[in-house]
Amino acid sequence: MNAHHSILIVDDDDALRPLLAEQLGDDGVYRVEQAATLTVAKEVMERPGGRIDVILLDVNLPDGDGRDFCAELRRKGVHIPIIMMTGSHDEDDVIRGLDAGANDYVAKPFRVGELKARVRAQLRLFENSEDVVFDIGPYVFHPARKQLTDQKKGYRIHLTEKETAILKYLYRAGGQPVERDVLLHEVWGYHASVTTHTLETHIYRLRQKIEPDHGRAGILLTEGGGYCLNPEM
């Protein structure tokens, strides 16, 4: 399965940064990018199709202060989770980082297990916010807008509330099949009048909207007694 989220580590410590990247990327959940300077970090973030989901940002960098970079990103409307990393335990230092727009703050040395837990917590919060966007096949998915945007052609596909909920739940399953009954319950809740036929009808209509090849399911797959998003996308 492809990495489900991408993390950018911005740190000039040439021993810590690659080690942290290896430890965060070892289970295949995260695609990890590295930058030793703010200049390189900006280049990574501006790459076409290279969306970053979380930034781990050092405070003291060769070409600037990480807190100033964080504040700059927030002014530009970047809402993804940013976790500051620093060798200082000073309370004023922490407050300054949070005031700059950081979501969390960890002091070095830190345990990687704890850092992973903080990343997961911030992703959960962000994925339930109005600002979240996901990549699904050739599209950028905006759940709050109930909309998919083709990344190359630029056209938009408008979704119903149920179609949005289906895509959102399947995305969070990380490419693993979700059984029909589970998906039915998660999207419709307990409604005796709603059957799997209702779900199948919605899946059919959704495929008509999103599949580039209308005769073949390449994005929304039928698998394992249910449905999943193609993990190879």
TrEMBL record:
The keyword Chaperone does not apply. It comes from the Bacteria. The lineage of its organism: Bacteria, Pseudomonadati, Pseudomonadota, Alphaproteobacteria, Acetobacterales. It holds the Pfam family Trans_reg_C. PANTHER family: PHOSPHATE REGULON TRANSCRIPTIONAL REGULATORY PROTEIN PHOB, REGULATOR OF RPOS. Keywords: DNA-binding, Phosphoprotein, Two-component regulatory system. The keyword Transcription regulation does not apply. The modification 4-aspartylphosphate is found at residue 58. Residues 6-123 form the Response regulatory domain. This is Response regulator transcription factor. Residues 131-231 form the OmpR/PhoB-type domain. Residues 131-231 bind DNA. Transmembrane segments: none annotated. SMART domains: REC, Trans_reg_C. InterPro entries: CheY-like_superfamily, OmpR/PhoB-type_DNA-bd, Sig_transdc_resp-reg_C-effctor, Sig_transdc_resp-reg_receiver, WalR-like, WH-like_DNA-bd_sf.
